[in-house]
Specification:
It is built from 7 helices and 7 strands; from the N terminus they run βαααβαβαββββαα. By secondary structure, the protein is of the alpha/beta class.
Length: 167
């Protein structure tokens, strides 16, 4: 599972309210429309500039706040291939995996906005192509990699007739 794209850099404590602004609450039943406003409060240009494969890169505690399941969903719908952060709010992390959006813990300090990145989830390696830097990332357990490979928890359950824990 190799993913390539540009980095969009955010700071610490990006909340689910910043990811999916509450003023668009009425769009919860129209997620593609809600995705047009993803991360709008953190970066008003993000939704119009992100391209398929790009990365959200953040500091500590990404996704804190309410357990809005649609927050990772609209990040994925916007075309983001993975979220890289120094740490995640627990509920956001699980929701991201469940919807098929990789949430990867790593050192993001040297990554700058616009850097070209390459992430190999199986090898647990992140390459900053722009800066010629390579780093190990916290590996995801095999069951999470399987869920991501299948496109999320629901698709994984459909494919295997239940949760397949041994991989």
């Amino acid at each position: 599972m190799i993913r390539k794209g540009r980095a969009f850099k955010f700071g610490d404590d990006v909340s689910t309210d910043a990811i999916a602004p509450g003023r668009y609450f009425h769009l919860r039943s129209n997620l593609p429309e809600l995705a047009k406003h993803v991360l709008e409060d953190a970066d008003p240009q993000f939704a119009s500039q992100v391209r398929p494969g790009d990365f959200v890169v953040a500091g500590r505690n990404f996704g804190l706040g309410s357990s809005r399941e649609h927050a990772p969903t609209i990040i994925k719908l916007a075309g983001v291939s993975a979220v890289l952060a120094e740490s995640f709010a627990r509920i956001f992390f699980r929701n991201a995996i469940n919807v098929g959006l990789p949430a990867v813990i790593c050192d993001t300090g040297s990554i700058q906005a616009g850097d070209e990145l390459e992430l190999d989830l199986e090898a647990g390696e992140l390459v900053n192509v722009t800066r010629g830097e390579r780093q190990r990332v916290t590996p995801l357990p095999p069951v999470m990699l399987a869920i991501l490979e299948d496109g999320g928890l629901l698709e994984h359950i459909k494919k295997h007739g239940g949760l397949k824990l041994e991989v």
